[in-house]
Amino acid sequence: MDFHKIWIEQFEAALGIQEQFGNKKALGYLIGEKFLNFLQVSEQDALFAGEIPAFVEEIKSIFQPYEIAEYFQTVNRVGALGHIMIDENYEEFRHADGADNVVQGAETVLRLEQAKKLLVG
Q1: 43-47, 48-52, 100-104, 112-116: lowest mean pLDDT where?
Q2: What domain range is 58 assigned to?
Q3: How far apart are alpha carbons 104 and 48 in whole angstroms?
Q4: pLDDT in tens, 61-94
Q5: Of 110, 109, 103, 105, which is closest to residue 94 (Cα–Cα)?
Q6: CA 77 → CA 9, 54, 81, 87, 112, distances in Å?
Q7: Number of domains observed in the structure of the chain
């Protein structure tokens, strides 16, 4: 499998998460973790950038527009730990691994806004 097609496996994993844990966890995994990472890599890799429209369409195929919009209205953390930890544990890990980097935080906010524009308009 071509690595720029990894989103297909991630999409399939999101379906399993959705079935087992619900939409909120699936949205956090697929958008807040995998899609944001994909957007980051696509900044440097044209093959990844070329897959963005298909990835967007697949996300829209399993979530209703209002669910996606609600996710962006309520998201307060992203990344691998963002959707699996409770607030208290998340803050401990965030501080322990130096995730308070201002530049990294700004890049994440910009990427989240890019994702919102692609998925919600």
Answers
A1: 100-104
A2: 3-119
A3: 21
A4: 999 999 999 999 988 767 655 555 555 655 555 5
A5: 105
A6: 23, 25, 9, 9, 10
A7: 1
